[in-house]
Amino acid sequence: MTHATWISGYDRFGNELLRHGFTKQRIDVVAFWTNIGGVTFITWLTIIAMAVFILAKHYTIGIWFGLTVLIGAAVIPSILKHTIQRPRPAYKLIPEGGYSFPSGHSSGSTIFYGMLLVCLLLFIRKQWIRWTILLGGIILILLIMASRVYLGVHYFSDITAGFLFGIGIVILSSSLLHWFREKKPHFFKSS
């Protein structure tokens, strides 16, 4: 599946778009964006977000948020990586182990920051603030995704698949939350 001609062309396009102008300073800046989408950073942010929701007595939102990130950003992508076993690109600027497809940074950051955006949009009513947060979240996710190709640890198709998978998880999980809120509203009351 990952060796199709159109995928190779798509990956070449991504490399030509994102992999140029290597300097020590630029690599350091791009590595910063990669770290913001990394497992350790996302895990700590998930724990903090869950704690904030629980302390604010939004227990169901906190548990829903944590389970979505855990299952969607950690469990399923890991299973996919070990099933597909696509090797990483040969020319990496940073050390990175494991398999390449789909990008865990892309799926994880899309799910975490996407879910955070959904949660913030539940509580924020002013339209200009909502749009500002949404735009900032999208830019952050795109920077994390681009960093993975720039650093040579993913192909363009890896980050695209991770992003699309992440969007799918956010939509599915948000839809389930909406359905659950209508069917069981007592679970969402602060107490």
Protein architecture, described:
With 191 residues, the chain is mainly alpha-helical. The protein has one domain. It has seven helices and no strands. It has helices at 5-18, 24-36, 39-55, 59-84, 104-123, 127-150, 156-183. Helix 5 runs antiparallel to helix 6 (127-150) and helix 5 (104-123) runs parallel beside helix 7 (156-183). The mean pLDDT is 84. It comes from Listeria grayi. This is Phosphatidylglycerophosphatase B. Keywords: Membrane, Transmembrane, Transmembrane helix. Pfam families: PAP2.
Helix-strand blueprint:
Layout: H1 5-18, H2 24-36, H3 39-55, H4 59-84, H5 104-123, H6 127-150, H7 156-183
Helix pairs in contact: 2-6, 3-4, 3-5, 4-5, 4-7, 5-6, 5-7, 6-7
How would you sum up this structure in a few lines?
The protein has helices spanning 5-18, 24-36, 39-55, 59-84, 104-123, 127-150, 156-183. By secondary structure, the protein is mainly α.
Salient structural properties:
191 residues, 7 helices, Phosphatidylglycerophosphatase B, transmembrane, mainly alpha, single chain
Strand content: under 5%
Q: Report, as a whole number of angstroms, the end-to-end distance.
A: 51 Å
Helix and strand content put the structural class at: mainly alpha
Count of strand segments: 0
Q: Count the helices. How many?
A: 7
Give a short account of the largest sheet.
none
Low-confidence runs: none
Rg, nearest Å: 18 Å
**Helical amount:** over 70%
Shape descriptor reads globular
> In sequence order, what are the helices and strands, one letter per element?
HHHHHHH
What number of domains?
1
Mean pLDDT: 84
